[in-house]
Amino acid sequence: MTNFEGAQHLPASVFKNYDDQYHLVESIVEIVLRSLRISRKSLAAFEWAVNEVMDNVLNHAETPIGGVVQASTQAEGKYVEFVVADYGVGIPKSLKVRDHRKALERAIQEGVTRNSETNQGNGLFGTFEVARVSNGEFQLQSGRASLVAKPSREIKIYRTEGRVYPGTAVLVRIKCSEPDVLEKALQFGGKQHEPAFDYLERHSIDEDGVRIVLNMKEETTSFGSRDAAKPVYQKILNLLGEGGAEVVEINFDGVYVVTSSFADEVFGKLFAEMGPLSFMQKIRFHNTDSTIRGLIDRAIVQRSRI
Asked: CB under 8 Å to 19, separation ≥6 — which residues?
């Protein structure tokens, strides 16, 4: 895992079932929303890739101990990187290919799976494409072979002499600043694939995904500093981005005090970024007492004078 400057991390976490997978993917997506400016479609492509690679462990690794996932973000350059590893049967044995380098080469090709009746075989292929199209990086290791694909370089597949990795390890680095990653990368059978039920749809209270409620008590453990406010600001900005929610409702239920700096870092900056009309149309407040509302109003007024 790359040691990014100013990175946000999800520590290495074990997953053994689909419930674990769901909660860990949610945690990873939250980290991305809070640390990077990202479009809804790019986020959906990233979320799809993480799910697919973790799903491969549960479907193909044949190990009772599950797998491990770790993730990081880098604000400068807008990179997201994740690693998924397991100690299972490995790709060569799963695909029944004796040449380990050929097994890894096949694994990132479209439609390759050990069981076409239950799987489409697009998980590693689509993940590789998301990394490639975004000018990111993709690494795959299993058995006696290692595959490396970096920007502007041809794919390299090495035989790892003297070393055998019995399971599978996948490293994926995606550059989220690249436009139209989803449209360019997720093409299966010549058709555009759009991931269903993405983060915004899961957390919207409307069927069409236009309204999101943020319970501020759940968004941060501190309301006393700019550092605590910055992830909240970034998340709201992302939720309201292109293709995102039309309205974000801010619920202050259970929150009794915020500092002026917190109010300015979130709502003063949002007002300055969005403009008065858009802010009033898209940001709504609930359960704000007079003190909190006064601090937010003051932050907005001060920002409007800058």
From this structure: none
pLDDT tens digits, 129-148? 889 888 899 999 999 999 99
226 and 93, same structural domain?
A: no
- pLDDT the model gives residue 151: 86
- Looking at the whole model, is its pTM more than 0.85? yes
Inside any domain, residue 175: yes
* DSSP code per residue over 21-86: HHHHHHHHHHHHHHHS---HHHHHHHHHHHHHHHHHHHHHS--TT-EEEEEEEETTTTEEEEEEEE
Cα 105–Cα 195–Cα 181 angle in degrees, nearest 5? 65
Quick one: which H or E segment has residue 302?
A: helix 290-305
Tracing tokens 């799910």 back to the chain, one arrives at: 51
Among 131, 165, 192, residue at a domain's last position = 192
| pLDDT at res. 275 | 95
